[in-house]
Fold this sequence. Notes:
By secondary structure, the chain is of the alpha+beta class. Helix content is 36%, strand content 24%.
Amino acid sequence: MTWVRIDAVLMYVSSLALGVALVACNVVRRRIPAVSARVALESSTLDKLDAQIARALQISPRVAFVELAEILDVAEQTVARRYRRMRRDGFLRVTMTADLHGTGGANWLVRVRCRPEGADAIARTIAARDDVSWVSIYGAGWEVDFNLRAPAGFETHELLHEILPRSAPVLDVAPAEIMHTFIGGAGEHQDTWSDVLTPAQTAALKATATHSVSSGAARTELDDIDRLLLDELGRDGRVPYSTLARAAGSTPGKVTRRVERLIASGVAYFHVDLATAAIGLRSTTLWLTVAPRSLASVGKALGTDTRIPFAAAVTGRANLTANVIGASAADLYSFVTEDLARVDGITGYELVPLLRRVKHAGALVHGDKLAPPQISPKRRTAAASSAL
Length: 388
């Protein structure tokens, strides 16, 4: 991946650094063992029922408490109380996200090399933007990575062209556009607790979920009501339909059909953010250089791996990236030397360990937990929310 050298004028750099600090408050499935529920639970503060509820929401994000209680064979009040506690205490968050490819937008993964003393301020300030998600600090603090979502009709590239290059701690900026997602987004169901539910429970939950039936190739135009619903569900993916109906000036039935249409058409999908305190596992980003003829097969191989919740083909020197979840460095070593080594077509790789997460798909991070959702319903524009 080609790094673009950034030169900054020292006096201008100092003022910007101060501003940042102030604002920053056809492959066979490979034999890779799934991370067991026992390992995850031993390193977290959640018990088995909590893990079952979290896993159930990954499969069916809006399953009704009464249905979930029946599937898990516990009281409805118990399920509701456990969910609300986990959400309140910052262990999990359900949100809805628009698939930008279905609405004419673009999705970028951006790597920012910076001085370690400025990494936290840069990451926190970038994370405050509504067009940014998955903000993370990698290595020993020398790299900040984030997902820049550019909706159709909105100019968000000024972050890459003007703001970041002028920031004092920034050394280099390397953006890569996502061309194709092999796993992640609407298809993402992290298998952190894949064995806490029985096959029958999993099947019952899948029956309650709304699934996408669109290939995602056709562009869909959103109206004002769709955008309002996406906005509300972007803060709380389980907000009652009656509440959404009042906000939209409509009826629960009509709002329900709209949301189901957004999901079925592939325009939007639900995501379940899980805090580090809940998972207790480490994450590493994998950047691969793959021969063009093997790009699809390698991506599909990664997409069948239970340790990988996200894999995508991207532009740039490294043309494929993925996130690898594991319990230890030994797990990562085993993955590279035994499993990745068996995949043909890979000509180079880079592993970048996560130091700490600053923002998930829809939630900021405080320590090892998710921060409370923002109260204000107003979504800032990209330009207004920039403060680097």
